[in-house]
Amino acid sequence: MLRHAVVAECRKLKGSCIWLAFLFLPAFSVFVGSANFSMNRDILTKEWQSLWTQVSLFYGDLFLAVLLSIYAAYAWRLEHLNHNWNNLMTAPVPVRNIFWSKFLVIAGLSFVTQVFFLHYTWRRGSILDFNRPFRRMWSVGFYVLGLVPFP
Fold first, then answer.
1. How far is residue 141's CA from residue 118's CA, in Å, rounded to a whole number?
2. How confident is the model over 14-42, as pLDDT tens digits?
3. Rounded CA gap, 32 and 59, in Å?
4. Would you state the pLDDT for residue 133?
5. How many C-beta neighbours within 10 Å does residue 25 have?
6. What is d(CA 146, CA 41) in angstroms, rounded to the nearest whole number?
7. Residue 6 belongs to what H/E stretch?
8. Which of 50, 54, 68, 70 is a plausible cystine mate for 33, CB 3.0–4.6 Å?
9. pLDDT level of residue 151 (50, 70, 90 thresholds)
10. Residue pair 129/38 in contact by the 8 Å Cβ criterion
């Protein structure tokens, strides 16, 4: 039953304009962070690491919270229009499945957004023509550490 609810949530998002934010905000944050990196290249000497910190600074502090808020608001948007809460609560689907399906769709969107963010950062670093190669395991390690909560 949860799988059907997740599929229904994905169908609701399929024809929406949320994909503009999905693609634009990570790309814009990489652009702003790489512009800041380019302006301070004499201070920021560790090529990939410096680019990653500058891009992540703008993305994490400014754009990620906005993007997750857009995802959550859009996932619940249809239920708030035209008294759809009544239809939703009378459907033969457990309430927990409705909430979990929305959570899983938002989590999936944010995961794919992070993959796009990593790709955009890699592309920008390739355009800047760094001397050292991009270390994939280094970036994957930062993603894993970002998932681990520290006390």
1. 12
2. 878 888 888 888 889 889 888 888 788 77
3. 9
4. 67
5. 20
6. 26
7. helix 2-14
8. 54
9. very low
10. no
